[in-house]
Amino acid sequence: MPTRTQGALRFALAWIAGTAIGGAAVGVLVGGSLAWARGGMPADAPPALLVALHTLAIYGLAAVLLGVATGLPWALAGALLPAEGRAARALRLVALPLGAIGVARYAAPRLAEALPLRGPEALTGWLVAAAAVGLALLVAAALAVARGAERPLARTLAATLLIGALLAGGVRLLWNGTDAPEGLAGVAAPRGEGKGAGPFAPASVTFPAPRNVILIVIDTLRADHLSCYGYPRKTSPHIDRLAAEGALFEYAIVQKPSTSPSVATILSGTYPFTHGIYTVRDWLPDKVLTLPEILRTRGMRTGGVVTNVNLSRAFNFQQGFDDYFEVGTTEGPSDSAPATKAALDWIDQVKDGPFFLYLHYLDPHAPYTPPPPFRGTFAGDAWSDLYHGPEPPIGPTYLGEIHKESVIENGSRDVDLYVQRYDEEILYVDSAIGRLFERLRVLGLDESTLVMLTSDHGESLGEHKFFFGHGHVPFEDNVRVPLIVWYPPGVAGGQRVGTIVESVSIVPTVLDALRVDYPVKFEGPSLWRHLPPGAPDGDAVAFIEVRKTKDTLMNSIRTPRWKLIHNPAGIDLARDPLRVRTLLDARRLERLWWAAHDGPAVKRVWELYDLQADPGELHDLARERPEVARALWEPLAAWIALGPAERVSRRVKLEDLSPAEVETLRSLGYVR
Q: What is the pTM (predicted TM-score) of this model?
């Protein structure tokens, strides 16, 4: 074998071994940092040893690929060039970065996604990965004892390790890959000046105006757990009757699946970026004009009965109400019975004049504690053993865990039991709805009162490995809620509307029914334009915002078929595995893990779901259908741009609350 070819081949083997050793070392360091930071990771994350093995495998195998892609071109150049010289050395040096860029651009992101590491149980994939790294180390060891090198092999290995590190850094600086669908790389939504989406013209209504309005919000109620929405358990006989006598909206979407911002949207007719609330414990700004404020100036008596402490006076949600009853928010039971009693007592007092009542039930919010005789109603029925996913750990945090405060008897991890209790809570609050409507009929108010029933958000019940919580993801279990309109003189019974609508439309719907001119621009159209229902509007969309702070916000657009989710803080699988800041940030490494392994919440920058073929939102199609993602991003970006460039919320400090309020927040899982 010619000396030139032999030397080139030896250097190529040394390069491969050196980059493999470097990759394995990085893997060990990253795995060790994850193991060290394990205390801040979700309890259902893999054990620290498996995390370490996983990161070693990813970076070790990536380094092997890097070594092969760069070492082989070096050997080929050395073997084919006719003579040694500056030109030969230059061509070989060019071959190194070209090979590295090729691996970084195409192989590394696919490696991060394609590795058979889909959970702690995938031990076979782990062993294969570890074996590949071990083989690279054996090759390096064999080379280390070889003789006859033109230069000491140890120096060659050291040099290649150093050059490999420099190349990796250079590639990272030069290459700005993206996990976005083609055509969305680097796209950022512009910001406007908060001009709002309106104004919308009032809808034409011909029925007699109601004298009274009751707006019922049932906290944490998923639409798909009501019988009238097709749920197999008979959870809602009284709500079913309400739907049968009125109009049911099949696809009502909240604009933020968290109580405070969602209720602010329901009461103001504006999106979260307009009323300014990010999350619970945020103060409702005085400048926000609410529905009770509008109706009070029109001579209606306004009353509120709330059972969620996040809607108490401490957070300024009483504005516009003549009477405001915080039932069970700081002491006593916060269930449906006392709330219904307070509402009925108030109605008895104001029944002779026009009134507006906002009634907010806390059931079925966790902890799921239905009282007798509702507890046990669904035990042992045909839907009591349907969950067959991973067993949820019990712990103090949200992601992938059951709140300590929500654990039911005997520390059970039986997901079906939690769902059973949740359904029994619905049955309990449904009985309260029955008592309320019976009183309206007794008082003769059923022909003069418009009733709207909805929820502030849904609840994850094990979907996407997210157990018994809400507010973190824009999936259907969190954002699709019931919406029923009942007014016998104006709404024919049995109507079902298949068009997507938003909770931001509730205020203009009430004002249109009352023939009240809009004093401000609302950001949703009145729902009366859909009654009587025609063919579903195929162009209708709903916009959703989730997460607690401006640094973690994600936005989503939902059409009849598609849902696009944009998470600017998410992981870019084509870029982040190679970023130094990812390697040094334990939290980002955690997100990288979940993004590559179908974690319990949205982790990627872009996700796209076909809701017709995949109603459970399990198969991300952002890469397979980039043309759909691009088409949806345009209206979503325009919606985001309606918000102000800077959005400031006022967070109420715990020290400004009473001890009872803090304890209630803690009991509901809002304070740790």
A: 0.76
